[in-house]
Design a protein that fits this description.
This protein is an alpha/beta fold. The protein has helices at residues 17-31, 46-51, 55-67, 80-85, 95-103, 184-201, 217-240, 249-256, 269-283, 310-317, 327-344, 347-365, 371-374, 387-398; strands at 4-5, 10-14, 35-36, 39-43, 69-72, 106-111, 128-132, 142-146, 150-157, 163-171, 175-179, 204-209, 244-248, 263-267, 289-294, 300-304, 368-369, 383-384. The chain has 3 domains: 1-117 and 293-400, Isopropylmalate Dehydrogenase (3-Layer(aba) Sandwich), CATH 3.40.718; 118-140 and 181-283, Isopropylmalate Dehydrogenase; 142-179, no CATH class. The radius of gyration is 23 Å and the shape is globular. The two termini are 13 Å apart. Bound molecules: NADP nicotinamide-adenine-dinucleotide phosphate and magnesium ion. Residues 273, 277 line the site of magnesium ion (MG).
Length: 400
């Protein structure tokens, strides 16, 4: 088989620990034999981030803006222990946070479904993709503890000096108080990313808030989504045969567990935090969860939803054969290759990404899987393999 040619390079962001090992194995075993891979490589491993004062992370994000598609390995977000372990100059910020700030995106997370690993919710047949707004609300709040009686007010001073005030509550005793905000820009970018993602994946889009109770705050989210839909996306959605559906958040929760899946569920920041953990664990496992950051400018960054699998890495350093599940990281690569194929009009590349994903699913459905999946598998002929044996099985399915 001749290697598939690429036009534009992928922005490749290498990472840390066990996933860095998996990363190289995926390239060597599953991609380089089939694709004449073009990448612009950025080493986001903690050692090199530290050497470059984290400039490499910024460069990688800017390269993503330039080329349009990136694939990212999991990376360590340093804490005090990591500062010591890696002798860091500083406790560098989360690379994902830095990249998100530059790309201005929304994170979409979808489970990879295979027969024999059954969702807890028995009617779920297709993936449910969670789209979480990642700015503001309770995550950027200001809070107070109130010791005793008094009046709490919301005060806004406009740039021209005009003051608007509303009484929040007249306290007759101790209590608590919280102020939070969001911006029209951020909500609009979130809405755009959701509409664009629904179009690019051909799935319905759901959005829910509590606008009946929060008549200004949540209602603004609802209105921004609705206006954008009516003015920019309705015709495109109709042409693509997909729907935009708005409901109240409690109604959405009740409906989600009665549907078969296959849609995108856009959530406000807090709802997305809570619901993505519910959806991912009800579908099975973090090692089967894909994640893509979509910017309103049409830029994509693919990754796995899990971290660097630190505990497995320390065992690997002691000489243990890799046993981790590479599926989500493989799907980060296949997702990026498919998108590159689509943007550059290289149908062989898109087809290869699809074939690779199918080979992975076929491998697991035929019973060959890593230990984390075997624990929750319902099939009869389950064969537990290490990562290398898992790659061999995928390769034999790839050449079917
Ligand atoms: P983690 O890497 O997601 O792993 C937590 C546990 O989940 C593992 O110990 C393992 O359980 C299981 N697991 C996760 N992925 C697996 C896979 N592919 N195959 C098999 N088992 C898997 O989270 P963490 O250990 O809390 O974090 C480690 C580092 O990752 C941290 O430094 C954190 O900053 C970073 N992190 C990065 C990202 C990112 O770059 N997107 C996201 C989250 C965390 P068992 O040990 O029980 O087998
Ligand atoms: Mg959470």
């Amino acid at each position: 088989m001749s290697e598939i040619q690429m036009k534009t390079p992928l922005v490749e962001m290498d990472g840390d620990e066990m996933t860095r090992i998996l990363w190289q194995m995926i390239k060597d075993e599953l991609i380089l034999p089939y694709v004449d891979l073009k990448t612009e490589y950025y080493d986001l491993g903690l050692k090199y981030r530290n050497e470059t004062d984290d400039k490499v992370t910024v460069d990688a994000a800017n390269a993503t803006l330039k080329y349009g598609v990136a694939v990212k390995c999991a990376t360590i977000t340093p804490n005090a222990a990591r500062v010591k372990e890696y002798d860091l100059k500083e406790m560098w910020k989360s690379p994902n946070g830095t990249i998100r700030a530059i790309l201005d995106g929304t994170v979409f997370r979808a489970p990879i479904l295979v027969k024999g690993i059954n969702p807890v919710v028995s009617c779920w047949k297709k993936p449910i993709t969670l789209a979480r707004h990642a700015y503001g609300d309770v995550y950027k709040n200001t809070e107070m503890k109130i010791d005793g009686p008094g009046v709490a007010e919301l005060v806004f001073t406009a740039e021209n000096g005009t003051v608007t005030r509303e009484v929040i509550h007249k306290f007759t005793g101790p209590g608590v108080l919280q102020g939070m905000h969001n911006t029209v820009d951020s909500i609009t970018n979130f809405a755009k990313a959701c509409f664009e993602y629904a179009l690019s994946t051909g799935q319905d889009l759901w959005f829910a808030t509590k606008d009946t109770i929060s008549k200004k705050y949540d209602h603004t989210f609802k209105d921004i989504f609705q206006d954008l839909y009516d003015n920019e996306y309705r015709a495109k959605f109709e042409a693509a045969g997909i729907k935009y559906f708005y409901t109240l958040i409690d109604d959405a929760v009740a409906r989600v567990v009665k549907e078969e899946g296959g849609f995108i569920w856009a959530c406000k920041n807090y709802d997305g935090d809570v619901m993505s953990d519910m959806v991912s664990s009800a579908f099975g496992s973090l090692s089967m969860m894909t994640s893509v950051l979509v910017s309103p400018k049409g830029v994509y960054e693919y990754e796995a939803a899990h971290g660097t699998i630190q505990r497995h890495y320390y065992r690997y350093l002691e000489g243990e054969e890799p046993k981790s599940n590479p599926v989500a990281t493989i799907f980060a690569w296949s997702g990026a290759l498919k998108k590159r194929g689509e943007l550059d009009d290289i149908s062989e590349l898109t087809a290869f990404g699809e074939k690779l994903e199918k080979a992975v699913i076929d491998t697991i459905e035929s019973g060959t899987m890593t230990a984390d999946l075997a624990r929750i598998a319902t099939g009869e002929n389950v064969k537990v393999v290490n990562t290398r044996e898992f790659f061999d099985a995928i390769k034999s399915h790839l050449s079917d």
